[in-house]
Amino acid sequence: MDLAPVIDGFGVVLEPTNLLYCLIGVVIGMLIGVLPGLGPAATIAILLPITLGLEPVTAIIMLAGIFYGAQYGGTITSVLLRLPGEASSVVTVFDGHALARQGKAGTALGIAAIGSFVGGTVSIIVLSVVAPVVASFALDFGPPEYTALALLGILLVSTVSSGDRLKAVIAACVGLLLATVGRDGFTGAERFTFGSLELADGLDFVPIAMGLFGLGEILYNLEERHRKVQAPATVANVWPSRADLRQSSGAIGRGSVIGFVLGILPGGGAVLASLAAYAVEKRRAKHPERFGQGAVEGVAAPESANNAAATSSFIPLLTLGIPANATMAVIFGALLIQGVSPGPQLVTQEPELFWGVINSMYVGNILLLVMSLPLVGLFVRILRVRATVLAPITVLITLVGAYTVNNSVFDILLVILFGALGYLMKKLGFDPGPLVLAFVLGSLLEDSLRRSLLIFDGDATGFFTRPISGVLLVVFLLVALLPPVRAALRRRRATPAENEPAATTTTTTTTTTKESV
Amino acid sequence: MTVLVGFVPTPEGEAAFAAGLAEAQRRGEDLLVLNTPRGGAPVSADVAPPELVAELTGRAHHAGITLEVRQAPHSGDLADTVVRTAEESGASVIVIGLRRRSPVGKLLMGSAAQRILLDADRPVLAVKPQADGD
Hints:
A: 2 domains
């Protein structure tokens, strides 16, 4: 492996501007991690317009900092207030808060910070080794491979993500539909524009992300008003004892590995990784009943896993140009705004960006470790800010930001429209993530599908005769068909009466997946 | 009938609780402690932490008084919430702590204590924290 670009990457990171934006990113990440409700995807979406004036490397360094910084911050409120700041810190609540009640909040936070640091760092090292290999492999990808990959990505995101699978698939289909709005790239025909000039170039990614993630989440959070108000918690000693460290070292190691693997998978990401790591620790433990009563491993494993996953989910984005989860979709959008199209050529064509972003994560993790131990009290203070103060400011920033991208009022209207849609989706139990991902991947899917059909002269069997796209499509079919088949088998065993509703759901799922194909 | 104490975890709140406890003992009534933060934020410094609530309960128990602590958050005006709670619970007296506030500060920030004194339709006992406390 050629080490020169890696070293050059460190040179990029250590430029004062980039260091500053790395710091800004991780501080913002930490803050929004502490705040329940506003997640990293929302924050990055809201801040997209700010990155317009920055260099691409600087912009992505900052946005990446927000993403992994949020994984640190989410822990704090989970432990101290039983209030997970991020979805990926939900499992930390069980043992973290139990420890806090025993007066060992400091231990839990310290272990979590160290676990996060180890998980993140291990993940970056593996990322540095694996990413160029994957990218060089993916250089051989042609349009048919990208078609298969995009299909698989959309399917995995809709099926692996938590929540109702049918609803996720519906959201993904809406995303694909939205991606077709605008002028057809091949024939120039206008689709779904209703004669509107603004729609002729298609829907922009930024207002959609800002609306669905940003405005939608703010609106949804305003609704949860009658929450219990808690007294500010105090943290005494954040340095974990040597016994605690020894006890949790295994959990940190396993959590890092699980997190890394699950982070790469589309739809997996930090949330799934933390859940899986916790479950594994509980199953492995000699005394599983300790979990939930304040087991240090129950904090160490999920926290290492979510940081490892946050880091490794950059691999599919930076090497294949396929975002693995909602936050990566927003960062994908940020890259597009900067005029960089992520993909396998990124390593060779933009080595400074590629290695700059990856190496900035070392710096960011060190910054977070340094900040999170002594400054916990400071970050918790932000929780005293009332939603009635915070929400209007955030909405204002969102709308002003949306305007500045294209200086267009139409974009503001789009943000409001998609904000309302995002709010309704959340209220009805739809995850906006698959929609945004399918929207991002939709144009890639359409482009490469039609280009490959041109290559194949309209013969669709060509997808299966090429080895890589063939394998990807077989995996696609397996993922699509496995759950209904498994449900059918279960239905055979169980009594027919109680499985009636389940049967209808699974059949509709299959039909929708096939339609989306 | 009960004695209603408006409580915050400060010297003023402590003075109000002490006076309220004595008042409840003298009248032979129950004690209702209203510790209501302004809603909307996940955390507020006005909330008594669980340890403090336990301590207050212990002190009331020691004095042979039945104590109820309400910590539901309020929206809007604090004085309204106190007066309304007093009406609902049929409090015979409201006990509040007064803090030092300059005339200008009062002009700018208003005074919840003053609003309670003016609005309440029952006796209000206003106490100050002990001088050595601040």
